[in-house]
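[retry 2/3] Glutamyl-tRNA reductase: previous attempt timed out, resubmitting with same input.
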Amino acid sequence: MNEPGAITGVSVDHTRASVDEIDLAGEDGVRATVSDLLARKGVEEAFAIQTCNRSAAFVVTDRHASATAALRSFAPDVRDGAIRRFGHEESLEHLMRVASGLDSLVLGEDQIIGQVREAYEESRSAGGIGPVLEDAVTKAIHVGERARNETSINEGIVSLGSAAVELATAETDLDGARSVVVGAGEMGTLAARALDETPVSEIIVANRTIPHATFVAEELETESDAIPLVDLPRVIPDVDLVIAATGSPDPVIGAESVPPVGELVCVDIARPRDVDPALGERPDVSLFDIDALEQVTRKTRERREDGARAVETIIDEELDRLLDAYKRKRADDAISAMYTSADRVKATEVDAALSKLEAQGGLTDDQRETVEAMANALVGQLLAAPTKSLRDAAGEDDWETIRTALELFDPEFDAPPGTPGDARESDGSQDHAATAERSDD
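[retry 2/3] Glutamyl-tRNA reductase: success.
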């Protein structure tokens, strides 16, 4: 049985899946994915993230079976071996690893933390972020910030754009070469900036909207120009390198649109693909996709091992803090329900007792206060031991005890009067958690 309000997650990413499988898993987009998951039985919260090398989804449910059933709708056409699955604690750790860049193709990449923030905002707009995922995702973002501020995890190559340029440098001589960057978004901009640090003679930025391409081109020191995507077939025959990084759902460079060229290196870092894979079958074209960047990024990974170890330590610390906070909250929920219920019973019985005493001759204000103080003391003393037991249960991951307490003291439960455990008894065992903390102080 899962603990109350637990996270369950699945991920299709570069560690097990191909580019095409990642594309297939993320084809619906973040908001549509979150909306679909929220419509599934038992799902209270949902979060999804999609980047160049991952598509992942997380749900919050009270029962593991509900989470498993709901997540079957995510990536149903992707082979089972390409899917990673996470329980509650694993999901929390995985989100921290993603935000810190430990799980990125380019170890420590800077772009991922912004992508996590964007996914958080989109998921929240779709109604998917509640208290459990709020804590989980914001903690992951905090870990990502600490990783970059306190370690060397992001030194050297920090993006797919810069990795693409390093790969191109290894494949062809860029001295005096002409190049085209397709796409003026974040990844295209990073690729253009990385190319600006090489000895290429010209950088052409191609984009659907010319103003965006012009903005990128104008910030480069290398001779540059901006063109619309429709002009690509005209300029590609005269360039040596193409780096494609648009957000288009369909390829923007088809095999038939590229005439025979002397020698062309093409690096496709888009997801979905920007370049028709058939183009790579031609002898005059060397085509590389995200999968091919693994060799390039391995060198960066080796240089960043010390930083990665430091990030692992940060994650261990922050995960322990988050799990402790989660356990306290689960225990406090049950304790709050218990004390609220006891308060309701106490109020009923005190009113009844005071009414009887008033009928027997009246009470002074001091006498009323004495009766009420006695009732408060009884509640505090009787619930002190259960309060400690529930907090101990949380510390020992005894979620069965906490779940039972939540069910017993459910504020919405009202047993019919006259039954064993009548309305007053069920109230007394039902919802009183705020006072538990008072007696525990």
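[retry 2/3] Glutamyl-tRNA reductase: The first helix runs from residue 19 to 25.
[retry 2/3] clearing retry counter.
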